[in-house]
Amino acid sequence: MKSQIFKLIGILVGSFALISMISNKSILQEPWEAPAKYVKMENPFANTSDDDNIGRTLYSKHCKSCHGSKGKGDGTKAESIDTPMPDFSNASFLKQSDGSLYYKTFIGRDDMPSFEKKITDEEERWLVVNYLKTLK
User: Can you state the angle between helices 52-62 and 122-132, rounded to 10 degrees?
Assistant: First the structure.
């Protein structure tokens, strides 16, 4: 009888541990796909001679604390966030369209906040996207 109780307790503890791991957001999070409308968006400032410093300054102000100074996902706040941080130098990140990056950067989801109200100027938004692509 005693061994059956220990087995039952073991099964319950194991089940609880398994459920806890499965419910972790980083495990369950689906791939982040931008809507087709954004994927197809053209970057009107892709070939601009505008100063890189605007994108870099905005990145430093709004993104660096989580994504790190070189976009490796190693910012000071990164460890406190459940969602895995992408590496902006990774080939799979860099192959995304500018429109996809625009969507993910300014619309956000889960731990990635929306920056629509913080960076309202359209040109500045695209300059951040341009800067992200220099972190390769």
Answer: 90
Instruction: Please name the amino acid found at residue 85.
Output: M
Kindly state the tokens that stand for 40.
């197809």
Please give the C-alpha separations between residue 86 and each of 15, 46, 89, 118, in angstroms, as whole numbers: 31, 22, 9, 22
Closest to 79 in 3D by CA, of 109, 108, 111: 111
pLDDT in tens, 21-43: 544 444 455 788 999 999 999 99
The model's pTM is 0.76
Q: At what angle do helices 98-106 and 122-132 cross, to 10 degrees?
A: 110
79 Cβ neighbours under 8 A, 6+ residues apart: none
Distance of alpha carbon 126 from the chain centroid: 17
102, containing H or E segment: helix 98-106
pLDDT in tens, 117-132: 999 999 999 999 999 9
Could you read off the pLDDT of 52-77 as tens digits, one per residue? 799 999 999 999 999 999 999 999 99
- Spatial contact of 64 and 75, defined as CB atoms under 8 Å apart: yes
